[in-house]
Design a protein that fits this description.
alpha/beta, Rossmann fold, Arc Repressor Mutant, subunit A, 16 helices, 42% helix, 17% strand
């Protein structure tokens, strides 16, 4: 059992979103008082069918609960968004009862104009395990190769981890895409997924992907939206002081977990070897995710982007209101040469107050001109120095 960093409210309703397998149900089993919690599991086919046909029956179920049931847990709320109307009514009538609402997809809620309770429920997101949560169980090679979904750390060997991740990729297709009817052309989406995984960390060319798959650019964009809405990937925009220019630039794409990325890309049979380009890309991917998870749990309210010109590319830019931007270059090398830092030095000089970090595998923190060369183990402490503990 891992101690999770997320800070959930004890006296207020909330949504808890996250991809399948990140541990939402496990977390809530320990967080919510067992004797005071009534569970409505929408993965139960009979109950799901009953409430799809008559969502108003949820109100009847809630009315029949004893007053000792302070919490109601509704698992996978996106399956029946109309239930949120009954949740809303219950919150209004009974200020002493709270709801924990989990979901692995926000698509139906966002696009179906669901009742999102207008502030009556806070919203949180749970991620795969962080370095801090794994603590002594954290192993960099395992994290880069197989990711940090909790199940990975309950399996005995790497062969079992590969089997789990392969099954996970198929489960995503079956349970999120096929069962919820998110795409009309499932074979085309199946062809799209490996290509999307192979594009992980790259600047997306909608037209090139469309050409490769024999589809139009609009369809490709809609497929990436599905990956975002089902929380298995996200688009990272290009940095610009102009919001208009930022919107016009092509984003990068990242999957939510390195192990899932390798599974979807068909790479699990290949070992990640240090000092190879594949290892470097996995190292970059993992620490971009780690930084974003930390910012989310710490509620830093940051925005993230990448920086690119015709001759400079910086992996991650962090912006926070009333703070100068932080530019982060992520390199798996255990020795950073001066030439590696030239682009970062150049851009940090140009922007007043900007900070520059080079996150790497060196053993000791050091300063090169205006850049902090940072052992990856100190990523958390360095960012806390900037944005707060």
């Amino acid at each position: 059992m891992f101690q999770r960093e997320i800070d959930l409210p004890k006296k207020h309703s909330f949504f808890l979103f996250g991809p399948r397998g990140v541990g939402k149900s496990t977390l809530l089993q320990t967080f919510l008082p067992h004797e005071q919690t009534h569970i409505i599991d929408l993965l139960n086919f009979e109950l799901e069918t009953q409430l799809i046909q008559k969502p108003g029956e949820l109100g009847q179920i809630l009315k029949a609960l004893p007053s000792s049931k302070q919490w109601v847990l509704i698992d996978e709320i996106q399956k029946i968004p109309s239930l949120l109307n009954e949740v809303h009514r219950s919150i209004e009538k009974n200020s002493h009862r709270f709801f924990a609402l989990t979901g692995s997809s926000a698509r139906k809620l966002k696009r179906g104009q669901a009742n999102l309770l207008a502030g009556r429920a806070f919203t949180y997101q749970l991620h795969p395990l962080t370095i801090h949560e794994l603590s002594k169980q954290f192993d960099l090679q395992t994290a880069l190769s197989y990711g940090t979904l909790p199940k990975i750390y309950h399996l005995e060997n790497n062969e079992n981890r590969k089997d789990f991740l392969s099954s996970y990729a198929q489960t995503y297709l079956k349970e999120e895409i096929l069962a919820e009817g998110l795409v009309r052309n499932l074979p085309a989406f199946r062809r799209f997924l490996p290509l999307a995984a192979q594009e992980n960390g790259n600047i997306i060319s909608w037209s090139n992907l469309a050409s490769d798959l024999g589809l139009d650019s609009k369809t490709i964009r809609s497929y990436f939206e599905i990956l975002e809405d089902t929380l298995v990937g996200f688009l990272l925009p290009a940095y610009s002081k102009s919001i208009r220019k930022r919107q016009k630039s092509h984003p990068k794409f990242y999957l939510f977990d390195p192990g899932v990325k390798r599974a979807l890309a068909g790479e699990l049979s290949f070992e990640l070897v240090p000092r190879t380009s594949e290892y470097g890309l996995a190292f970059e991917h993992f620490f971009i995710l780690e930084i974003m998870r930390l910012a989310n749990y710490k509620k830093w309210e940051c925005s993230f982007s990448y920086f690119a010109t015709h001759d400079i590319e910086i992996d991650l830019v962090i912006e926070k209101f009333h703070h100068p931007p932080v530019f982060i270059e992520i390199k798996s090398s255990n020795k950073i040469k001066g030439s590696m830092l030239s682009p970062l030095i150049s851009i940090v000089r140009e922007i007043k107050g900007a900070k520059g970090f080079c996150l790497c595998q060196e053993k000791t923190r050091r300063k090169v001109e205006n850049i902090l060369v940072l052992p990856w183990q100190e990523t958390r402490s360095a960012l806390e120095e900037v944005f707060g503990v």
